Amino acid sequence: MSNPFIGEIRMFGGNFAPYQWALCNGQIMSIAQNQALFSLIGTIYGGDGIQTFALPNLQGRLALGYGQGPGLSNYDLGQAAGSETVTLLISDMPGHYHSLVATTTAADQTSATGHLTGKPANGAIMYVNPGSPSPTLGDLNVLSCGNAGGNQPHENLMPAQCVTYIISLSGIFPSRN
Known about the structure:
With about 180 residues, this protein is mainly beta.
């Protein structure tokens, strides 16, 4: 790891930061002890800017280039984005249909679980013209169907392999083009 740029971030296979490197875990650093690095990243990632600044925190996050590519969202340097879990709303789901299997036999259960949906006790039918492209809708027994889903968040994490992100505390001070 010779001659890195100050502030350069690398992936490292070990579980520690080598000499003159620090973990990208959001730790607060002293400006007085790390003036060169502070002059490059300032308080983009946190700190008070008087005595302290923070390193990037890449724990549980993927690195994302800042700016806006064609057709992509704009991201500012230091901005955290995304979520590890998501709860889907009905408005998030694409339009779709569910098939309904039913019988004209009178219903004898209050739950459709494990049973065909039957004709409601009031004698109404669910539809007429079976097989017609536009069946006429009828009444459905309210006890034969209900809400589905648990309204709980699900994991929203692409397949990944964990590595250690480290940032150089010393080295070559990068010049601008």
